[in-house]
Amino acid sequence: MHTATASAPPQTSVSLLAPLSGSLFAIEHVPDPVFAQKMVGDGIAIDPTSQSLLAPCDGEIIQLHPSHHAVTLRTLQGLEVLMHIGLDTVALRGKGFTPHVKVGDRVKTGEALIDFDADYIALHAKSLLTEMVITNGDRVQTLIGRSGSVTVGEDIILEVTLAGAVDAETATPVGEQTTSAPIVIPNPIGLHARPAAVLANLAKHYQAKIQLHRGNDSANVRSVIALMNLQVVQKETVTLTAIGADAKAAVLALTDAIARGLGEDVSVPAVAPLKPAQSQQSQPLRPRSTDANLLLGVSASPGLAVGQTYRVREDVLSIVETAQNPVAEKQQLDAAIAQAMLEVEAVRAKVEEQGKPDKAAIFAAHRELLADPELLDVAHSYLDQGKSAAFAWKQAFTAQAEQLARLPNALFAQRANDLRDVGQRVLRLLVGATATAASYPPNTILLAEDLTPSDMATLDREVVKGFCTLAGGATSHVAILARSMGVPAIVGAEPRLLELPDGSSVILDGSQGTLRLHATPDELERVQQRIAQQQARQTTDRQYATYPAVTIDGYRVEVVANIGSLNDAKESVALGGEGVGLLRTEVMFMARALAPSEEEQTTLYRSILQVLGRDRSLIVRTLDVGGDKPLSYLPMPHEENPFLGERGIRMAFDQPDMLRTQLRALLRASGAGTLRVMFPMIGRLEEIQMAKAILEEERQRLGIAPIAVGIMIEVPSAAVMAEQFAKEVDFFSIGTNDLTQYTLAMDRGHPKLAPYVDSLHPAVLQLIAQTVKGASQHGKWVGVCGGSASDPQAVPLLLGLGVKELSVSIATIPSIKAQIRTLNFAHCQTLAKQALTLSTAAAVRALCPLVDE
Ligand code: PEP
Ligand code: MG
């Protein structure tokens, strides 16, 4: 027996036995960033061959997830060991798991904790890979995992040396102070919650005490709240200081990560300055209406909705102020926070599973808030004064939220709502209140002082037609989530909103930021008709979504999808997608600590091919990052003009291992369906020749059949020389987003230039015509995967110019197919010819007016 025993309390290390038989994996290789990036903690993963999870050492069960797929055990030395069976298994809601323990049980090494049905889990969850991680990393000095195959209850798989009573936060670190060079913040909206959470999380990998300074102010980088309180905005200069053994390494790594935007796309322009209503002091100037029947607010999510109001009232939880046993209260608080952490993680996983990784980041930031050292410090100081866990926690988070809300910068002030959201979650757990999923009458327009991201994640879209809140701004997380869910919404509304009796009939115009009260039956009728017409058209388009897109004179166009994930692939097939014209592989490379392995990539490509089936092809674009889209694990020198720098294929040649790994994964997956590879940003003939040579080398090494090769046409030189390029490839796909940017020499993300960066500019159309002509000289086909393929005004022209395949955004598949079925190809050809003679984008748009719903 290798475990710690009760008779040896002052131990400095803990040995954890294999809780399952199977093969070990480094935690970094788990195909889930939450584990791979050690956000939950450091540890190890097992691909199990046994089906009963056993205690890896003696201890007490401090948490058992309600879905029974995860359990946390506290060892006698205070280490908290989370064991998480499978990936995304929370979604199984307990099916396939049989727990043998409950919270509070004391267990001995080798005792059964949870039995599970491996067949069921393998079929219904993402993976069986089981993680064992230490969630209180501050107690860990070193952690050594072993590798290879192990037998349950026999082999030690983790050796943990304890940090003793010393923790990174409270210890007085030794050594010289290291100071970074000045760092300019590149993030469009500064160090707000999401990048702050990434920074705090990165800092946890180091022992050193690290501070971030802006002028005379400074913050502990492990505290998201402290970082947000600094209100660092774009282009401000900060410095880092660190003291401790690994101070130098910490400063170097964190400086680099901050300069790269902490996982955010820093190429997007700064958000337009907010209107005074949103950007001024804590009491924003609200738009006020002079019309008693019209209530004004700020547009948060566009769209029309008609319904009856329902006022959401906040739960009032009853809390006892004092408690007898501070140790027990602390344990309760820790357990509630751990449980809340798991709940938030489940929401994050659900949002990510819905194909919204950027929205999932909101909940990833919530997890960091839950672990915020400053928040915990305040709560602990109340516990030390004899207060109950619930009272201490409430005082801590409300004080911090109020402090945030008072910040003059609205972007930071709005994050107070996130803190209240996670705060309430823990509080409910502490007082034993269950968060019942709210049920509302049909056609509800919710009115509330404020809603939280968690409210949004559980909103029933069938019943809730829209919402209107007093608080919030267009950049609040609630507004971001509303937009992604297509829920019309207004925030920052006039206070009289809350005086409206429940059941009032209203018209909510999310685009205009208005709520019409006491609408006449006539008005209601008209708006309802408009909504109904739009919906009917959508429904019909969806009904016929699987029908081919053939013009009335018999010209067939393939309508395929632009996707970024496996979920997108599923969604696109459900909406009638005839394949994938662009898999943006950068999605799987971004916002993580390490590049995906060959295995992980092969699995993804293979899974997408399986979803598409034999009849639909998959075009995979090799990694298109660099310059404007940095990867945190790929240091690149600063570039003056990132769009003209090492982007796409240029970056791939600079990182040949990464390219080769991806090509091998593609080749290995290719047998599962029809896979084509496509190289981005090709502008010179030598580039495609070199890329093909590398592909061929890897193909021969693997002994796999050849796969079709294409290029993106997004650099004007490639369009102009399409005839020469056509000899080299099997197909072209025109990236009109970049082609327009480079043709017109206008940054595609520039807020002021946005109205002019129009893909229907005749110069771009000329290049498309030239591309099709060059391709046809060698019998090659041309598709379009840029934004104009999803633009109904562009569709007739692209057809007329000879484009055979339109790769569109998933949601527009049914409507673009429906539109094509109304077109006459001969007429499209005439239109295209005419368009090529025009001088401005506006004239082209006038030639192809939108047919109104
Ligand atoms: C394009 O440039 O049109 C394109 C499809 O590529 P991305 O938008 O990913 O740069
Ligand atoms: Mg592009």
What would you say this structure looks like, in words?
The model is unreliable at 1-11, 165-170 and 270-284 (pLDDT under 50). This protein is of the alpha/beta class and 853 residues long. It is globular, with a radius of gyration of 28 Å. Among the domains are: 13-165, Glucose Permease (Domain IIA) (Distorted Sandwich), CATH 2.70.70; 169-260, Histidine-containing Protein, Chain: A, CATH 3.30.1340.10; 549-630 and 641-847, TIM Barrel, CATH 3.20.20. 50% of the residues are buried. Helix 7 (326-353) packs across helix 12 and helix 20 (656-669) packs across helix 21. The chain is 36% helix and 20% strand. The strands form 6 sheets. It has an 8-stranded antiparallel beta sheet. An 8-stranded mixed beta sheet has the order 20-27-26-22-23-24-25-21. Strands 29-30-31-32-33-34-35-36 form an 8-stranded parallel barrel, surrounded by 6 helices. Bound molecules: phosphoenolpyruvate and magnesium ion.
